[in-house]
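Support request from a user on the community tier.

User writes: "When I paste my C-alpha cells into the form, the page sometimes reloads and wipes my input. The last time it worked, I copied everything first. Here is what I submitted, just in case something in the input itself triggers the reload:"
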C-alpha cells in the first residue's frame, strides 16, 4: 500500500516487529533516523554512531528500536538501503522517521529530495508493506517522512512528509536538537581512545583526515645576564611528523627534514603512502600551525600512523608550548589531544596513534617522550633504519 499524500495513514494493528527501510539509488549519502517524544516527556533519537553521541539503539530495551548500519557512505550510487527494526511503540507519544541528506547538510546546502529516487518502506511481521516516496520538490537537507503513534486500536503510520533545512529540523522535531554533524572530543588521559568511522563526501575537501599541530613559540627573546640565568626567551621550533605502516608496502616516516631526499620526506596525498605533510612552520607564528593530511579514500591501505612532534631548535620546554593536536575527519567529531604541562627534557613526544580498526580510525592518546625518532621507533616496534637529517 502506497501512502501517496501527506496525511494519508494506515493502521498497523498489533505487531511483534516492524521493519522500516530507507531505499535509494542516487549518488547521495542519506541517513535513516528516528526521533521521539515519550509519554512521560522524554525526547531523543536513534541514529548512526558515525555522528557524535549517536546510538544505533537497542531492540530488547528502551527505545526498543535498532538501526542496521550506515549505507551510501561516500555518496555512491547503487542499491543503497538502511534498515531500522522497531519492536515496541507503547512508550512513545510521537515517533518520527526522518532522512538526513548528509551530503548536503555537511556542505550547508539544500537540494530537492525528489531527485534522489528514494523511498521509505514499512513492513510488519505479518508481511504488510506500506511505502512513502520522497517526491517533495521543496528544498532542504532533511525529510521528515513518517510518524508513528500508538492508539487504542493499535499502532498507526502517518505520511508526515515535509522537507526542511537542518537548522529548522533541529528546532522543530522532538529530540533532534542533540544531533550534530560534528563536535569535539578531547582525549584527556594517556591511553584514552575513540574509534570513528568518517563519512566521505563527494564535495571538494571531503576525502581527507586533517591532523593539525598548533603551539605557542615561547616568550620573546630577552637579553642580559638575568635572562641567561633563568633560561627564558628562547623561541621553540616545534615540528609535526608521523610514522606510517602500510598493509602492503613500506614503513617509513614523514617529517619536515631532509627535503633533499629523492624519495621525499613530505609524502604524497595522491600516491603511496597517501599521507602528505603540508609544510614546515619554523616559528609557530602561522595561525594554522603545521598540518598532515591522509587520503581517506585510501585508508584501507594504511595499517597505522603514529603522530609525533619534536623540538628541532630551542630548549625542550614542553610546558611553554601549550601544544595541541587536532584530528578532523568528515562526519566525525573533531578529536583533540593536548600535551599538558609536561617538563620532560627529551625532544620528541609521540602524541597519538591512529590504527585501522576494520575500516574505522581508532585514535589513542599516547604522550610518550623519547630522545629522538629512532628511540620512538624501537618503542613502537616500527623497525626502520635511521640516518641524520636536517632542514634546508
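"...and here is what came back when it finally went through:"
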Amino acid at each position: 500500500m502506497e501512502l501517496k499524500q501527506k496525511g494519508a495513514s494506515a493502521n498497523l494493528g498489533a505487531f511483534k516487529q516492524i521493519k522500516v527501510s530507507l531505499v535509494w539509488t542516487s549518488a547521495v549519502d542519506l541517513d535513516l533516523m528516528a526521533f521521539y517524544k515519550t509519554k512521560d516527556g522524554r525526547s531523543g533519537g536513534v541514529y548512526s554512531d558515525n555522528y557524535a553521541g549517536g546510538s544505533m539503539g537497542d531492540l530488547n530495551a528502551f527505545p526498543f528500536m535498532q538501526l542496521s548500519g550506515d549505507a551510501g557512505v561516500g555518496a555512491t550510487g547503487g542499491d543503497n538501503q538502511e534498515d531500522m527494526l522497531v519492536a515496541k511503540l507503547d512508550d512513545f507519544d510521537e515517533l518520527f522517521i526522518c532522512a538526513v541528506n548528509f551530503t548536503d547538510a555537511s556542505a550547508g546546502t539544500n537540494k530537492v529530495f525528489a531527485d534522489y529516487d528514494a523511498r521509505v518502506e514499512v513492513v510488519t511481521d505479518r508481511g504488510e508493506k506500506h511505502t512513502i516516496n520522497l517526491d517533495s520538490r521543496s528544498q532542504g537537507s532533511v525529510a521528515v517522512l513518517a510518524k508513528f503513534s500508538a492508539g487504542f486500536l493499535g499502532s498507526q503510520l502517518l505520511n508526515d512528509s515535509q522537507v526542511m533545512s537542518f537548522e529548522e529540523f533541529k528546532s522543530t522535531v522532538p529530540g533532534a536538537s542533540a544531533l550534530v554533524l560534528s563536535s569535539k572530543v578531547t582525549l584527556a588521559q594517556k591511553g584514552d581512545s575513540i574509534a570513528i568511522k568518517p563519512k566521505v563526501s563527494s564535495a571538494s575537501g571531503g576525502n581527507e583526515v586533517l591532523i593539525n599541530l598548533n603551539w605557542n613559540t615561547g616568550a620573546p627573546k630577552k637579553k642580559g645576564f638575568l635572562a641567561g640565568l633563568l633560561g627564558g626567551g628562547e623561541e621553540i621550533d616545534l615540528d609535526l611528523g608521523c610514522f606510517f605502516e602500510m598493509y602492503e608496502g613500506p614503513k617509513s616516516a614523514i617529517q619536515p627534514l631532509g627535503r633533499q631526499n629523492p624519495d621525499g620526506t613530505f609524502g604524497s596525498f595522491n600516491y603511496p603512502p597517501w599521507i602528505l605533510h603540508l609544510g614546515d612552520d619554523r616559528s609557530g607564528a602561522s595561525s594554522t600551525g603545521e598540518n598532515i593530511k591522509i587520503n581517506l579514500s585510501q585508508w584501507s591501505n594504511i595499517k597505522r600512523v603514529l603522530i609525533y612532534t619534536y623540538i628541532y631548535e630551542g630548549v625542550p620546554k614542553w610546558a611553554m608550548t601549550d601544544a595541541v593536536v587536532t584530528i578532523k575527519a568528515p562526519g566525525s567529531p573533531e578529536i583533540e589531544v593536548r600535551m599538558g604541562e609536561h617538563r620532560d627534557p627529551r625532544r620528541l613526544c609521540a602524541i597519538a596513534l591512529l590504527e585501522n580498526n576494520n575500516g574505522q580510525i581508532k585514535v589513542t592518546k599516547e604522550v610518550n617522550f623519547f630522545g629522538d625518532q629512532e628511540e620512538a621507533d624501537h618503542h613502537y616496534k616500527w623497525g626502520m633504519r635511521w640516518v641524520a637529517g636536517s632542514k634546508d
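Agent notes: The reload is a front-end session timeout and is unrelated to the input. Confidence is low (pLDDT under 50) at residues 219-232, 258-264, 282-286. Residues 373-380 form the longest helix (8 residues). Escalated to web team.
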